[in-house]
């Protein structure tokens, strides 16, 4: 299973261009591409050293085969397809990441992990630092993703829009409630009411048993009183 994690402090490099930032999601592919470019330049500068050129040509051939295996053309096509989905225009490709707001940097971070095609997406306070318009965009975008998600958030409206289950952990015990956050609040209130009713019933039964013990113990039924006391203690 491939797990992707969107940190609440969006992980981007301010000195990269937007396209370079997206391409950084494909670390192995980019290393091959950069190595190919360096070897190609080295070949152009080794025309007078045939032995060196031969070694470089062998390396270039190996790198080309690796590039075909990881399909560098497909990587480029994936980035070109995703950028407009995230709201980036073709002109944004060469702009520096530092020139964009935190909301747009969040889109870059999200885009990078979606490019990796994860089986599970973990989102840690994804609405932090975002304005209302960007939060609404994020809700709509995530709704369209066919990826299971685990979301930690204090934004109840955001949880209402996206979640189908709420997991509550209290005093070391976890319980799962079906539905979104508002439905969880209602279900939790009903659960507490049921637990309280069960506790009240139990207390009433204990009191009745104690009363029985007291009455039986006063007469000749001390054996029955002892049995009732054992029941009460359970």
From TrEMBL:
Protein name: ABC transporter domain-containing protein
Alphabetical list of PANTHER family matching this protein: ABC TRANSPORTER ATP-BINDING SUBUNIT, ABC TRANSPORTER DOMAIN-CONTAINING PROTEIN
Cross-referenced InterPro entries: ABC_tran_Xtn, ABC_transporter-like_ATP-bd, ABCF_ATPase, P-loop_NTPase
Any one GO molecular function term: ATP binding
Residue ranges annotated for the ABC transporter domain, each copy included: 3-128
Pfam families: ABC_tran, ABC_tran_Xtn
Keyword ATP-binding: yes
SUPFAM superfamilies reported in the protein's UniProt record: P-loop containing nucleoside triphosphate hydrolases
Keyword flag ATP-binding: yes
Keywords: ATP-binding, Nucleotide-binding
Stored Gene3D superfamilies: P-loop containing nucleotide triphosphate hydrolases
Residues annotated as domain ABC-transporter extension: 167-230
């Amino acid at each position: 299973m491939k797990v992707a994690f969107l940190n609440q402090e969006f992980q981007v490099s301010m000195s990269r261009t937007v396209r370079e930032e997206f391409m950084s999601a494909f670390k192995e592919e980019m290393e091959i591409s950069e190595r190919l470019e360096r070897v190609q330049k080295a070949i152009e500068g080794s025309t007078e050293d045939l032995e060196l050129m031969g070694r470089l040509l062998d390396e270039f051939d190996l790198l080309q085969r690796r590039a075909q295996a990881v399909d560098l053309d497909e990587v480029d096509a994936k980035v070109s397809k995703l950028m407009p989905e995230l709201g980036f225009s073709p002109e944004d490709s060469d702009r520096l990441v530092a020139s964009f707001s935190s909301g747009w940097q969040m889109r870059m971070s999200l885009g990078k992990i979606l490019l990796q095609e994860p089986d599970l997406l973990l989102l840690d306070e994804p609405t932090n630092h975002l304005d209302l318009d960007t939060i609404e965009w994020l809700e709509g975008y995530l709704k369209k993703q066919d990826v299971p998600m685990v979301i930690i958030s204090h934004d109840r409206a955001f949880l209402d829009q996206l979640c189908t289950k709420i997991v509550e952990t209290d005093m070391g015990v976890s319980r799962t409630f079906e539905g979104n956050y508002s439905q969880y609040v209602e279900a939790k209130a009903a659960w507490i009411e049921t637990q309280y009713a069960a506790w009240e019933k139990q207390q009433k039964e204990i009191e009745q048993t104690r009363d029985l013990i007291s009455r039986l113990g006063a007469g000749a039924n001390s054996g029955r009183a002892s049995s009732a006391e054992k029941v009460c203690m359970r």
